[in-house]
Amino acid sequence: MYVCLCHAITDTQIKEAVSQGDMSLADVKKRLGVADQCGKCAKMATQIIQKQVDIE
Ligand code: FES
C-alpha cells in the first residue's frame, strides 16, 4: 500500500528501511525521502516505523 503519494513510497519500503537500521521518521526521510514534500504521510509513516521497530 502506498503511504507517501508524493514519492510513491510503500509500507513495504518503509519496513525494509527499518530492517536496514532506520529507527525514526528522520532516518527514513533521509533514506527514501518520505514526508519531505507535503508531509501528509508523516503520521502514517511514523506509525509503521514504530510498529516495525517494536517487532525487530
Ligand atoms: Fe509523503 Fe506528500 S505524501 S510527502
Q: N-to-C SSE series?
A: EEHHH
Task: Spell out the CATH superfamily.
Answer: BFD-like [2Fe-2S]-binding domain
N- to C-terminal distance: 21 Å
The set of bound ligands, ions and cofactors reads: FE2/S2 (inorganic) cluster
- Which descriptor suits the 3D outline? globular
Q: How much of the sequence is in beta strands?
A: 5-15%
CATH names the topology as Arc Repressor Mutant, subunit A
Helix content: 55-70%
Low-confidence stretches: none
Q: If you compute it from the alpha carbons, what radius of gyration comes out, rounded to the nearest whole angstrom?
A: 10 Å
Task: Summarize the structure in words.
This protein is mainly alpha-helical. The protein has one domain: BFD-like [2Fe-2S]-binding domain (Arc Repressor Mutant, subunit A), CATH 1.10.10.1100. It is 55% helix and 9% strand. The chain contains 3 helices and 2 strands. A two-stranded antiparallel sheet has the order 1-2. A hairpin with a 4-residue loop joins strand 1 and strand 2. Helix 1 packs across helix 3. The longest helix is centred in the last third of the chain and has 14 residues. The termini are far apart. It binds FE2/S2 (inorganic) cluster (FES).
Architecture blueprint of SSEs:
Elements (H helix, E strand, L loop, with lengths): L1 E3 L4 E2 H9 L5 H8 L9 H14 L1
Antiparallel strand pairs: 1-2
The structure holds FE2/S2 (inorganic) cluster (FES).
Summed up, what is this model?
This protein is mostly helical and 56 residues long.
